[in-house]
């Protein structure tokens, strides 16, 4: 957050330069994308992640400011499209209607990030590889989203859920970590290590979001019928008869508050939460091991270690009475 405050003006200037790349004949497009960006704000300043990675390798976060903008553009687009995929009522962004917002999402998520990494501010030799990372990310993210939409809850396993999470969240984080490593001039071997770190961090962040969905009372995953890691823990932990009951509750929870409450109690059972916490711990330990292997500037590496810890708390607690959810924030 300190780095984000320090670099906020530079990121904003870079964002405006990116919008200007749309050209003088695309005034409506520029205005629509700008409106979309202004009305999709994020609680956590993850856009600085590629800047920190670049600083770990070179000591300087500044050259990776364009990648921070790519991160913002990608997630703004992905969040809007995720709402559509989940069948949610899409809100208008400011003065934009839904159709206008959708068109702005397409431009802001795909061609504009490509324009950013093709700009003169990026070394010529890095432009092609960085463009390929954008394309690779979108393919992986859509694959993860399709796995999520087509998930067979009856065959839910933790490994299957993680495979979907690696696309939904791992792909964008591994995109910006690999981009930052390439921009820093890292070897291909090291780029792949940074990519792996981004994948692991993305899974951790998805597990964090899954907890927040319950703790805040949004329960969007239950309403959407999403097969989460926590649900897979419950199914794997149950015997055959109990697993069938969990699946029935999961199907009913989309339209029944009583079924939603009953399923929440199942998900917050002590043995289910132990499996979930073990999963968080395994990914957290793997992320720290990767950072130790990657080495680099110690001050900025310490920031990433802290980043990992802040992304991987165990927040859920067993409800003391049926239907109650305790929070630790």
What report would you give on this structure?
With 329 residues, the protein is mostly helical. The chain has a single domain (2-310), classed as Farnesyl Diphosphate Synthase (Orthogonal Bundle), CATH 1.10.600. It is 72% helix and 0% strand. The longest helix is centred in the middle third of the chain and has 28 residues, at 188-215.
Shape: globular
Largest sheet: none
Extended strand count: 0
What is the overall number of helices? 15
Q: What proportion of the residues form beta strands (DSSP E)?
A: under 5%
Distance between the termini: 18 Å
Alpha-carbon Rg, integer = 20 Å
> Could you state the order of secondary-structure elements as H and E?
HHHHHHHHHHHHHHH
Q: Return residue spans where pLDDT drops below 50 for at least 5 consecutive residues.
A: 321-329
List the helices and strands and how they pair.
Elements: H1 2-20, H2 27-38, H3 49-58, H4 65-85, H5 98-109, H6 111-117, H7 124-149, H8 158-183, H9 188-215, H10 220-224, H11 229-237, H12 240-252, H13 257-267, H14 270-294, H15 298-310
Helix pairs in contact: 1-4, 2-5, 3-8, 3-15, 4-5, 4-6, 4-8, 7-8, 8-9, 9-14, 11-12, 11-14, 12-13, 14-15
Quick structural summary:
The protein is mainly alpha-helical. Helices cover 72% and strands 0% of the residues.
């Amino acid at each position: 957050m300190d780095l984000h405050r320090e670099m906020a003006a530079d990121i904003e200037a870079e964002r405006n330069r990116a919008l200007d790349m749309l050209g003088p004949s695309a005034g409506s497009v520029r205005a629509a994308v700008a409106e979309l960006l202004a009305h999709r704000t994020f609680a956590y300043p993850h856009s600085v992640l590629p800047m920190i990675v670049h600083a770990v390798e070179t000591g300087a976060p500044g050259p990776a400011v364009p990648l921070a903008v790519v991160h913002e553009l990608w997630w703004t687009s992905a969040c809007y499209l995720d709402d559509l995929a989940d069948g949610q009522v899409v809100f208008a962004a400011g003065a934009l209607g839904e159709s206008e917002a959708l068109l702005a999402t397409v431009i802001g998520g795909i061609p504009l990030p490509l324009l950013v990494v093709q700009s003169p501010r990026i070394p010529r030799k890095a432009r092609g590889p960085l463009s390929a990372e954008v394309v690779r990310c979108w393919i992986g993210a859509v694959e993860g989203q399709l796995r999520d939409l087509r998930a067979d809850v009856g065959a839910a396993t933790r490994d299957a859920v993680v495979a979907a999470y690696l696309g939904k969240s791992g792909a964008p984080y591994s995109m910006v970590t690999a981009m930052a490593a390439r921009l820093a001039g890292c070897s291909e071997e090291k780029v792949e290590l940074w990519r792996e770190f981004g994948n692991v961090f993305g899974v951790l962040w998805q597990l964090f979001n899954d907890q927040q969905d319950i703790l805040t009372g949004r329960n969007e995953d239950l309403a959407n019928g999403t097969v989460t890691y926590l649900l897979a823990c419950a199914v794997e932990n149950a015997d055959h008869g109990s697993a069938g009951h969990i699946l029935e509750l999961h199907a009913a929870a989309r339209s029944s508050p009583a079924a939603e409450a009953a399923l929440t109690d199942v998900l917050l059972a002590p043995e289910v939460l132990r499996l979930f916490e073990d999963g968080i711990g395994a990914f957290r330990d793997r992320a720290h091991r990767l950072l130790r292997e990657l080495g680099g500037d110690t001050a900025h590496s310490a920031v990433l270690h802290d980043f990992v810890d802040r992304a991987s708390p165990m927040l859920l607690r067993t409800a003391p009475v049926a239907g109650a959810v305790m929070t630790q924030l």
